[in-house]
């Protein structure tokens, strides 16, 4: 069997793995970004106990390997609460990436000029209104590049799901290589990852340009 025909026979199983990888990626992004924003707001809160609690959470999840967190949730908590492997993986990914997004958002919030707060107060806006209508929109423009970097990193990190027996894109490739003693599957999977990261890079570049245009207007 020539290489092209072999790749064609591999595609159905690799596409099934890609579908799972994208599902984990999309669910993680959809949950971790808003959660990270909540944590960032809590981190800059004047209510010190909340800030300390969130800071401890960030320290734990940013200071330990994601693989260790995956193993903990899968072999630890899933045995207690009877969670499925995908649920355990999703919890680990969301909590891990929410911690990183929280720090990115916190940096964006702190980068907003202090005069904006004073002007908002002079206009009679409450603290919540100032944060919602003044600070967060300006923060978004600042955080797009680091959020893009974390998002692209997440695509690659989804491969860690294979360590807890989830059949993702990398796991499908490993199965094909072990079965056929042919590394072609790895090459095809590498191209798939590159295609996804290229698409995300283009999307974030368009978002960045759109935000730059709206800022000039």
Give the oligomeric state of the chains in this entry, treating copies of one chain as homo and distinct chains as hetero: single chain
Supply the CATH architecture: Orthogonal Bundle
Give the amount of beta strand, in percent. under 5%
> What string gives the helices and strands in order?
HHHHHHHH
How many beta-strand segments?
A: 0
The CATH homologous superfamily is termed MetI-like
pLDDT averaged residue by residue: 90
Highest CATH level, the class: Mainly Alpha
Q: How many domains in all?
A: 1
Structure, explained:
- The chain has 217 residues and is mostly helical.
- 85% of the residues lie in helices and 0% in strands.
- It has a single domain, classed as MetI-like fold (Orthogonal Bundle), CATH 1.10.3720.
Strand-helix topology:
Elements lengths: L2 H41 L4 H16 L2 H16 L3 H26 L3 H9 L4 H31 L11 H12 L3 H33 L1
């Amino acid at each position: 069997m020539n290489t092209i025909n072999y790749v064609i026979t591999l595609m159905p199983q690799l596409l099934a793995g890609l579908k799972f990888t994208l599902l984990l990626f999309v669910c993680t992004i959809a949950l971790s970004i808003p959660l990270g924003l909540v944590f960032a707001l809590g981190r800059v809160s004047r209510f010190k106990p909340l800030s300390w609690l969130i800071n401890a959470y960030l320290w734990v999840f940013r200071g330990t390997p994601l693989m260790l967190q995956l193993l903990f949730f899968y072999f630890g908590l899933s045995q207690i609460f009877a969670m499925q492997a995908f649920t355990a993986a999703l919890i680990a990914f969301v909590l891990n990436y929410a911690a990183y997004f929280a720090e990115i958002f916190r940096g964006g919030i702190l980068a907003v000029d202090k005069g904006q707060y004073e002007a908002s107060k002079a206009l009679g806006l409450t603290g919540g209104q100032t944060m919602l209508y003044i600070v967060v929109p300006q923060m978004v423009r600042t955080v797009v590049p680091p959020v893009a970097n974390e998002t692209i990193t997440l695509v690659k990190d989804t491969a860690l799901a294979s360590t807890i027996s989830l059949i993702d894109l990398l796991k499908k490739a490993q199965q094909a290589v072990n079965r056929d003693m042919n590394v072609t599957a790895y090459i095809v999977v590498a191209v798939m990852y590159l295609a996804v990261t290229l698409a995300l890079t283009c999307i974030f570049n368009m978002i960045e340009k759109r935000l730059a245009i709206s800022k000039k207007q």
